[in-house]
Structure formats: structure tokens, C-alpha cells
# Entry
Amino acid sequence: MRLVLCTEFYHDRGGAYAAALDAEWLLRSRGHEVIPFAARHPGNRPTPFAEHFVGYRDLRSILRRRRYGAALGAALRAVYSLETYRRLRGLIAAARPDVVHVHNYAYHLSASVFAAARNAGVPVVHTLHDYKLLCPQLSMLRHGTVCERCRGGRLHNCVRYRCVEGSSAASAVAALQNCVLGWTNVVRGTVGAYLCPSEFLRAKAAAGGLPAPALHCVPNFVRLGERHAAARAPDGRTFLYAGRLVPEKGVGTLLRAMSQVPEAELVVAGEGPLRSQLETLAPRN
# Structure
């Protein structure tokens, strides 16, 4: 089988991207052909298909330099990108895939990846790495607190509470993205199967209106190499957290739980804005 794998960046820069690359590795190891489609970036892995990739614009950097005209263009492109549509249609015409597998798309590819696949008549599978279809801010958190105020299309709450980076402008772009997704039905009317890394996410997606029969729980996996064979045998008392130190990961909850089991040990590997706060919170173990 031949697949086009859509991910915003073709290198490991976080959990969702690592999961996409792991999926690519697994599919290739089973004899399938995987063709990447992403935004151009200096860190991307080399691929002969890079000529089809879309241009990369760092909206945050543009705003910092107060290039507001360019920022407006980048924001509109995040809502719907004609460049992405044209380039993916070109790649589909050249590669003739059996399936388009969409991972992350929201800011650098846009929902036009779904329109391109639909109009080319190619089936689409979408892995849900976050809650974008239900929450413009992605994580269902409002300034660190669980929030479902946008449920049922009440997307103005994202702007009202400045949920995205504390910015009204960024929150408006995110809310507009979700409005377009709802108005056009471009995702729900195109995707044949949704892959959810957890049962919790699958249940939330069903409660949010995605078709339950199309939701499938497919957990992320870890590629075990030679280093694992040489690693210390687990003693049942040592745990590892590896990931970003941000509110949505719940590391604070994990640290408070560890204080209740002093006979166990937790190793935290990661970086992020909560590091100093978590270091203060961390118990001795």
C-alpha cells in the first residue's frame, strides 16, 4: 500500500511528530510505501518529496517583529492554505497514493489537506494527537484549568478568555480555524477513520460529535532498540516521565502522587516553562 503522511514538520520536535515518524517507520517495516508531506524546515529529514513541501512561516516571529501585514497573511493561511491545497494535489497526482494519513495540520498546513485529498478521491485517515476538533486551544485547558466552554460551537469563549498564549489575536485565529472546520465540514465529511492514542480521547471525541463507529483507539508505541537490551532490569520501583514540562501534561499531579509513595523513585526528563515550579514542588524521591 502507498500512503501520503501529512505532518506539519518532518522531524522530531515533540510527541505528535515523533509518533508520526514512528508510524512511518512501522508502516515501512511492514512493506508499505510512505510519502511525507510537510512544511519546509531546516531540521526536516531528507526526502526526495521535499519539493512538494509548503513554505514555512513562523507566525510568532513575524508578530515579534511587528510585521502585521505578514502576520495577517500567515494567520489566514493557517485557516485555509491554497498553497497547501495545490501542492498536496500535485503530490497526490504524482504519487497516486491509496490513503492520505493526516497527523498534525492546524497551523502550517491547514485543513486544506483534507479538501485536497477529498477532491482527489483518496480515502483519509486522521490521527487525533490533541483536541483541535473540539477545542481551538487544542488541550481543553484554560490557563491550566480543565475547560469545555467551547463545546457545542461556543467558540467565542476562546477569544473571550484569550486561551491561546494569552493573546486575543492568536485566540481569534484558532477560533476562526474551528469555525471554518464547522462551516465547511471539511474534516468530518472527509475522514473515514480517526485514530485515537487513548480511550479517554476517543470518548471525548465521541462526546464532541465525531462519529463513534469511525473512532478507533490505537495507542502510541515505543521503538525498542539495542539500548533497551542493555538497560538496567526494571525493579518495579523506578518510573520515568519523558516529555515537555507544560500544564497539559499533568506533571504536577504526578509529583504530588510520588510524594505518597516514598519507596518509589521518579526520574523526570524534559524541559519547559514549568521547570522551576516543578523543581520546587518535587519530593525527595
User: Anything to note?
Assistant: The first strand starts at residue 2 and ends at 6. The longest helix spans residues 168-184. The two ends are 48 Å apart (CA to CA). DSSP finds eleven helices and ten strands in the chain.
